[in-house]
């Protein structure tokens, strides 16, 4: 069990490294120079190409460690944790812009896991780590967005207490939180707002209608945030919600919020990703019967047909489909190096590839329902198709929305050095070392 889990964790790390190699080999940065944020949370505004790639990889490692640790509380199967981690990393884009797509909620899973440890163990270290992580994740965000992850973590524990009778009150009384902890929380909030004010970067909020449907279609990222997280993710998330019906209102509420506030889409995406692990674990444990899985497989088959029709209509009459294309497809920028190549069949290729992946996901689910003998093959095929789907989408969207790095982009992003930046860099170094320690702990854990 431990070797399987460690190998699957390393496989997700390898996918992230492959994406970084793709960026490095092509020297890629977002085509919108105003949204270029080299270095990310850990190395924000460090003016070097290496810092840009390394910072992105560290943020993905932060997300991976958090998702893996949090998923281990709910799904014992390493395959389910691999599935959830691939969906989380593969759907977190680094471009156009990076703040809402990757950085907005990258720290949330680990923050929730650390708060679990703080409530369930007598040690003060998890609480201190959670406080420092709240400050770190505020890097490069407006104050309102910097408060989103801590607020979502608090809502998580409140919902767990109300819906699942999580002993939140008893745990707080056991910890005997007093004046020292209250002062610490106040200091964390002040530092969070200060860091957000010093380092905030532009993060536009578009209301174009293509935002929410992309969660289901995978045609392209929205101009402000991306929603796609894989076709099998949606299927298993639906199956997971059928096992935990009291949470069915959450995606509906978040979906309604998305229409008026775009940062809600990454939150909805993260919820669906985590619940897909519950659905896959239900498949592994045999809690879901074939009758419950077949409708999900049929829905993916119908979605594949619809996407195929969209691709065909786009080829047959591009002018008639221009409205749909403008709403859903991200078009190449004049700054893009491979503009001539990207223009060829762009509008039809995206729904065509999405239709193929939806069909493969549907076939995998139908295979799983064909009998117990086919279950091991279906499991392996599901993990392969899922990684191909989500990371394939990530590579395509990055290629369409990046251009070669220019010296002007680096120099424009370089801020003057100050005492505030020195303190922020010290916190970043501390968390880099902490991430490596947590990663080694996962690899060495017997129940990783």
Outline the fold blueprint.
Blueprint: H1 2-26, E1 28-30, H2 49-71, H3 78-90, H4 98-103, H5 108-120, H6 125-136, H7 143-146, H8 148-163, H9 168-175, H10 179-199, H11 214-217, H12 231-243, H13 249-258, H14 264-285, H15 290-316, H16 322-328, H17 339-343, H18 346-368, H19 375-400, E2 402-404, H20 407-412, H21 419-444
Antiparallel strand pairs: 1-2
Quick overview of this protein structure:
This protein is an all-alpha fold. It has one domain.
Helix content: 55-70%
Overall form: globular
Order of neighbouring strands in the sheet with most strands = 1-2
Q: How many domains is the backbone divided into?
A: 1
* SS class: mainly alpha
Runs with pLDDT <50, length 5+?
A: 32-36, 203-209, 329-345
Could you describe the largest sheet, including whether it forms a barrel? 2 strands, antiparallel
H/E topology pattern: HEHHHHHHHHHHHHHHHHHHEHH
Give the strand content.
under 5%
Number of strands: 2
How many whole angstroms does the radius of gyration measure? Answer: 22 Å
Q: What is the overall number of helices?
A: 21
On the 0-100 scale, what is the average pLDDT?
77
Distance between the termini: 8 Å
What does this 3D model show about the protein?
The model is unreliable at 32-36, 203-209 and 329-345 (pLDDT under 50). This protein has 448 residues and is mainly α. The chain has helices at 2-26, 49-71, 78-90, 98-103, 108-120, 125-136, 143-146, 148-163, 168-175, 179-199, 214-217, 231-243, 249-258, 264-285, 290-316, 322-328, 339-343, 346-368, 375-400, 407-412, 419-444, and strands spanning 28-30, 402-404. The chain has one domain (2-444).
């Amino acid at each position: 069990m431990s070797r399987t889990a460690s190998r699957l964790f390393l496989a997700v790390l390898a996918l992230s490294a492959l994406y970084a190699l793709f960026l490095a080999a092509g020297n890629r940065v977002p085509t919108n120079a105003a949204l270029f944020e080299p270095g990310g949370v850990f190395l924000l505004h460090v003016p070097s190409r290496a810092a840009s790639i390394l910072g992105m990889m560290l943020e993905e490692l932060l997300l991976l460690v958090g998702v893996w640790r949090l998923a281990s509380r709910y799904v014992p199967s390493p395959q389910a944790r691999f599935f959830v981690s691939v969906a989380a990393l593969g759907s977190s884009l680094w471009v156009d812009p990076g703040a809402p797509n990757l950085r907005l909620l990258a720290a949330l899973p680990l923050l929730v896991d650390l708060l679990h440890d703080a409530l369930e163990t007598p040690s003060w270290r998890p609480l201190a780590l959670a406080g420092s992580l709240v400050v770190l994740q505020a890097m490069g965000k407006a104050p309102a967005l910097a408060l989103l992850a801590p607020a979502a973590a608090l809502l998580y524990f409140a919902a767990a207490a109300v819906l699942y009778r999580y002993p939140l009150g008893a745990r707080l009384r056991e910890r005997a939180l007093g004046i020292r902890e209250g002062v610490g929380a106040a200091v964390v909030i002040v530092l969070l707002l200060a860091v957000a004010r010093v380092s905030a970067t532009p993060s536009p909020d578009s209301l174009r209608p293509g935002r929410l449907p992309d969660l289901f279609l995978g045609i392209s990222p929205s101009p402000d945030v991306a929603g796609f997280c894989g076709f099998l993710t949606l299927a298993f998330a639906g199956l997971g919600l059928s096992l935990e019906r009291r949470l069915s209102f959450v995606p509906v509420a978040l979906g309604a919020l998305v229409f008026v506030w775009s940062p809600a889409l990454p939150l909805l995406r993260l919820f669906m990703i985590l619940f897909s692990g519950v659905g896959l674990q239900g498949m592994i444990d045999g809690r879901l019967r074939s009758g419950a899985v077949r409708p999900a497989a049929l829905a993916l088959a119908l979605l594949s047909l619809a996407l195929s029709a969209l691709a065909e209509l786009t080829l047959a009459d591009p002018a008639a489909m221009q409205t749909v294309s403008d709403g859903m497809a991200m078009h190449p920028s004049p700054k893009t190096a491979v503009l001539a190549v990207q223009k060829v069949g762009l509008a039809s290729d995206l729904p065509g590839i999405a239709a193929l992946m939806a069909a493969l996901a549907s076939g995998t689910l139908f295979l799983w329902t064909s009998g117990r003998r086919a279950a091991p093959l279906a499991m392996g095929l599901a993990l392969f198709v899922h990684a191909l789907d989500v990371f394939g989408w990530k590579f395509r969207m990055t290629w369409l929305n990046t251009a070669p790095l220019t010296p002007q982009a680096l120099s424009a992003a370089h801020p003057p050095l100050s005492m505030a930046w020195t303190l922020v860099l010290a916190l970043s170094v501390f968390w880099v070392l902490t991430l490596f320690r947590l990663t080694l702990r996962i690899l060495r854990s017997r129940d990783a």
